[in-house]
Amino acid sequence: MNGGESGDSHDAHHAGVNARGEAAMGFSQTETAHHFLLTRDGGVIQVEVKDPADTANRTRIRQHLAHVAQMFAAGDFDTPMLVHARTVPGTPAMSRLKSEIVYAFEETERGGRVRITTQNAEALAAVHEFLRFQIEDHQTGDRQEQ
Question: What is the chain's pLDDT, residue by residue, as a tens digit (146 residues)?
């Protein structure tokens, strides 16, 4: 658990992340799966529907992630702040170094992904900090190493 939270407060926090996420992202948090992957040159934000027949959520995922790629490229990290109810670690540096980071949206069979790449060491550290926080707060179970 983060920061010594009790089980109840941790569960309440995660429920809040899901509720705010559903409102901010426009798709079900329980019928979709988030993944945050660290790579040598950045990372990946991936969201997919659990049920391949769920075309409504798949469409909303794609719309959201395409928008995320545009917002992040402009240095706008308001959506993660709304979802997590705080400034998300890594985002201040990612905003400041926006010209050093590339965000590329791609569709997947069940949703989409945003590939994040950079050659700047400070930006890379910020991207990895951001992704590690996402792994913890969304409880994805993804690896926190590259």
Answer: 444 445 565 566 556 555 565 656 666 778 999 999 999 999 999 999 999 999 999 999 999 999 999 999 999 998 877 666 778 999 999 999 999 999 999 999 999 999 999 999 999 999 999 999 989 887 889 999 88
pTM of the shown model:
0.83
Is 74 a domain residue? yes
Query: Residue 146 contacts by C-beta under 8 Å, 6 or more apart in sequence?
Result: 38, 39, 40, 128
Q: Is residue 145 part of a domain?
A: no
Assigned domain for 142 exists: no
Integer Cα distance of 40 and 30 in angstroms: 30
Phi, psi of 101, rounded to the nearest 5 degrees: -125, 135
* Amino acid present at 25: M
Tell me which residue of 142, 143, 103, 137 sits closest to 18, measured CA to CA: 137
Closest CA to 124 of 134, 132, 112, 136: 132
Q: How many domains does the chain have?
A: 1
